[in-house]
Design goal:
Structural class: alpha/beta
Strand content: 15-25%
Distance between the termini: 66 Å
Number of helices: 13
CATH class of the largest domain: Alpha Beta
Bound molecules: 1,4-dihydronicotinamide adenine dinucleotide, magnesium ion
Largest sheet: 10 strands, mixed
CATH topology of the largest domain: Isopropylmalate Dehydrogenase
Strand order of the largest sheet: 2-1-3-12-11-4-5-10-8-9
Radius of gyration: 27 Å
Number of strands: 20
Shape: elongated
Number of domains: 2
CATH superfamily of the largest domain: Isopropylmalate Dehydrogenase
């Protein structure tokens, strides 16, 4: 007998308590080995004046069990309240968002009959840091951050997930033909970590064509791993294509923590009517069981769930004349599923999960040797209303002996020297100064340059150092540079 795994549950709001009840009954009937602690989250907690919707004492339970099965909550309208999901995700460092997107043709209406993919989205980095600047009157900038450790974690999780869930292929999507450094790192780390998972097929697609394929030919995908923003978009495209968003479970995973839930909300319009579909939370619980190493129980529940859908036992939200056989309430559906424990689906694919073991464990980060970092110049941002030649003429007297103006660019295009007259220029310029003959540049030389610019009334908005790492440029060239 497997040792019991402690988990924390919360019943949430609206239909939350009903679908949690159903899910717990099924977990018990299937023989899941769980030690359940309960916490309160959501509406009642918000109304007690706790702006995060979760009491401090509840964190103790989460820190103890590290596994959270969560029913949906009703997010209060109006200001002052913080999103519970964002709070939990940030506090527990849940870096991966996992969303299976599956079509259950012909039992649930969909445009695509053979679709069974999992989107694994990085959750902490990319353009979501909220680091934005107004660089001039005309120009806004957002900073996209992709880190090596952040990428290594999400990519490893994708491969580990694939192994534990009997999946054959992981596809990475980036736009590294354009963002050679940030997306380039994500792709490179994917290839590098992929070397350790030779049992899994792997490929890379550029995000635009990849997204088009997800919409038009979703059957070709298995697991997809993506940076945050692309993952946000692709997971919505994929979910829409399945026709079964209402049935989806999802998880948020950190190095030590995991949170499992349904994709849908608290459905206050049908709360208390006994008709809620518990499938989303049940499938969230299945993901939880795989994560904690009870894959055999997960498979038993998942296959019984598929069999129940095949049998046509459908709650109102997916009921269709001619396809469904029984219009089931929450309790009927739950009872039918429990009767099916041990059975396997006939038309829908049978699922198999790696049984036993410790579940999905994310190996520690690779140790990367220190690289030699050498400063070879600086990019200075300047606001200026005029022509590139005039700007160069104003700035050149400010050069230091070693640090000289090499190019000026505007919106990433070189406009000096030898710019094209046709290039439209904004009021925000980037001036690239480099050490002569590729010389090393001292901090004091940069400070001297900025001081000279200041004395010449050239108001700079920012300065970014240019480095080489182990001899390779740590910056991109402007178009035309
Ligand atoms: P919703 O997903 O709760 O409901 C959308 C529609 O789908 C409704 O007509 C509802 O009756 C139906 N529906 C949803 N789940 C169903 C189920 N299991 N069985 C049968 N029908 C179902 O989204 P909505 O109405 O936008 O949001 C309601 C509340 O839920 C809001 O307060 C929202 O903030 C919250 N919410 C919470 C989430 C969470 O806790 N993870 C996620 C999404 C929304
Ligand atoms: Mg979104």
């Amino acid at each position: 007998m497997t040792q019991k795994t402690p988990i924390t549950i919360a019943r949430g709001d609206g239909i939350g308590p009903a679908i949690m009840d159903a899910t717990l009954k099924i977990l018990e009937a299937a023989g899941a080995q769980l030690d359940i602690e309960e916490i309160e989250i959501g509406k009642a907690v918000y109304e007690r004046g706790v702006p995060s919707g979760i009491e401090d004492s509840s964190w103790d339970s989460l820190r103890r069990t590290k596994i959270f099965l969560k029913a949906p909550i009703t997010t209060p309208q109006g200001g002052g309240f913080k999103s519970l999901n964002v709070t939990v995700r940030k506090t527990l460092g849940l870096f991966a968002n996992v969303r299976p997107c599956v079509a259950y043709h012909p039992f649930v209406e969909t445009n695509h009959s053979s679709m069974d993919m999992v989107i694994i989205r990085e959750n902490e980095e990319d353009l979501y840091g909220g680091i934005e600047y107004r660089q001039s009157q005309q120009v806004m900038a957002s900073l996209k951050l992709i880190s090596r450790p952040g990428t290594e974690r999400i990519v490893r999780y994708a491969f580990e997930y694939a192994r534990a869930n009997g999946r054959k292929k992981v596809t990475c999507m980036t736009k590294d033909n354009i963002m050679k450094m940030a997306d380039g790192l994500f792709h490179k780390v994917f290839d590098e970590i992929g070397e350790e998972y030779k049992d899994i097929e792997q490929d890379h697609m550029i995000i635009d064509i990849g997204t088009a394929k997800v919409a038009a030919n979703p059957g070709m995908f298995d697991v997809i791993v993506l940076p945050n923003l692309y993952g946000d978009i692709v997971s919505d495209v994929a979910a829409e294509v399945t026709g079964s968003v209402g049935l989806g479970g999802s998880s948020n995973i950190g190095v030590d923590f995991g949170m499992f839930e349904a994709v849908h909300g608290s459905a206050p319009d049908i709360a208390g009517m006994g008709i809620a579909n518990p499938s989303g939370l049940i499938l969230g619980a299945v993901m939880m069981l795989v994560h904690i190493g009870q894959g055999d129980v997960a498979a038993k529940i998942h296959n019984a769930w598929k069999k129940t859908i095949e049998d046509g036992v459908h709650t109102g939200d997916i009921y269709r004349d001619g396809v469904s056989t029984t219009k089931a309430g929450t309790d009927d559906f739950t009872a039918a599923l429990i009767d099916n424990l041990g059975a396997t689906p006939k038309t829908l694919a049978k699922v198999e999960y790696a049984a036993g073991g410790k579940g999905i464990i994310i190996p520690p980060l690779k140790v990367i040797p220190d690289e030699k970092k050498e400063r070879i110049g600086v990019d200075v941002g300047i606001n200026f209303g005029g022509q590139p030649d005039a700007l160069a003429a104003l700035v050149q007297p400010c050069q230091t002996e070693n640090l000289t103006l090499s190019i000026i660019s505007n919106r990433g295009v070189k406009v000096w020297p030898d710019g094209a007259e046709e290039t439209f220029c904004t009021d925000n310029w980037r001036l690239r100064f480099k050490g002569k003959d590729g010389n090393h540049v001292k901090t004091s030389e940069v400070v001297q340059l900025l001081s000279n610019l200041n004395n010449a009334d050239m108001n700079f908005t920012n300065a970014l150092m240019l480095y080489k790492f182990n001899g390779a440029d740590g910056f991109t060239k402007a178009q035309g540079e």
